[in-house]
From TrEMBL:
It comes from the Bacteria. Residues 24-278 form the EAL domain. The keyword Transcription applies. The keyword Transcription applies. GO terms for molecular function: DNA binding. Keywords: DNA-binding, Transcription, Transcription regulation. This is EAL domain-containing protein.
Length: 280
């Protein structure tokens, strides 16, 4: 009968939820062990100067190669790490590793190259964040001017005044702040008004159909013009085609990041690329 079918469906549904929960708990257990098991690795996606082949910098992207699950996408483990608070030690690990690497690159002559590092909400809002960061800078000898820390609008809406004070402290340290995924938050313009940032990263969703949708290309044009009149730099994210690249060059975007130029690559791969293409 319809009634019993309904009940079966509910049972099936709650069974699925239980499976999902069990999976989540397994994932969380493994995530807790990942640092000590040395399962994390950093990949790097080059960010290019527009209108040239010069590498301006690289975004650090975390990869988890789990003993239990194999390669897990950040889309699957970053939200869980955020929810459980594990992102705090993980984020600290990322910062330390990336700063160590940046120092090695600077020593090898690539000092102008910028390194972009993603922050998370729990990390930015943690009371020790600034002091942890200062320690890492001192420990590694990484120059703050070579760092750009990426924040998103959604990370900061809970307490925008507090976020502003943290970003001001970052800027005082000499660190560059980038607003990641720009345009996807709830109030991008008021975020810009209230928060001190120096770089905008235009979200991939605006870049995707820039070549077929005039509306989107006008929006991107307006973002770039507004950013430039506020003395901000602009990165276009998720550039996948030559056509998108050429439109963005015409619109005078400053920097380009995307699969069309390079996917995120391993340390060895980016070092080869740097040797080939970077002026020291
Ligand atoms: P995000 O910061 O916006 O990073 C850009 C994402 O877009 C990366 O995905 C990158 O691989 C991908 N991407 C870049 N260019 C293209 C393109 O042309 N086409 C397509 N389809 N994708 C492109 P990934 O590495 O999977 O990272 C996803 C998200 O996970 C990141 O988005 C970021 O929010 C988060 N994440 C990654 N590493 C870290 C980290 O160390 N800490 C924190 N807190 N979050 C991180
Ligand atoms: Mg990012
Ligand atoms: Mg982004
Ligand atoms: Mg994103």
């Amino acid at each position: 009968t319809a009634k019993s079918q309904g009940r079966n469906r509910i049972q099936l549904f709650s069974k699925e939820i239980n499976i999902q929960n069990a999976k989540k708990i397994q994932l969380e257990t493994q995530l807790q062990l990942a640092i000590e098991r040395d399962e994390f690795v950093l990949h790097y996606q080059p960010v290019y100067q527009s209108n040239s082949n010069e590498i301006y910098g690289a975004e650090v992207l975390l990869r988890w190669n789990s003993q239990e699950f194999g390669l897990v996408s950040p889309m699957n483990f970053i939200p869980l790490a955020e929810e459980t608070g594990l992102i705090v030690p993980i984020g600290e690990w990322v910062l330390r590793q990336a700063c160590q690497q940046k120092k090695r690159w600077s020593d090898a002559g690539y000092s102008t190259m910028k390194i972009f590092i993603n922050l998370s909400s729990r990390q930015l809002n943690h009371p020790n964040f600034i002091s942890v960061l200062e320690n890492i800078l001192e420990e590694t000898g990484c120059a703050p001017e070579e760092l750009s820390l990426e924040v998103t609008e959604s990370m900061m809406i809970k307490d925008i005044k507090y976020s502003a004070t943290i970003l001001e402290q970052l800027i005082e340290l000499g660190i560059n702040v980038s607003l990641d995924d720009f345009g996807t938050g709830h109030s991008s313009l008021s975020t810009l008004k209230l928060l001190p940032v120096q770089t905008l990263k235009i979200d991939k969703s605006f870049i995707d159909d820039i070549s077929i949708d005039y509306k989107n290309s006008y929006i991107v044009k307006a973002i770039i013009e507004m950013a430039h009149s506020l003395s901000l730099h602009v990165v276009a994210e998720g550039v996948e085609t030559a056509e998108q690249l050429s439109i963005l060059n015409d619109l005078s975007v400053d920097y380009i990041q995307g699969f069309h130029l390079s996917k995120p690559i391993t340390l060895e791969e980016i070092e080869t690329l740097l040797e080939l293409s970077c002026s020291r």
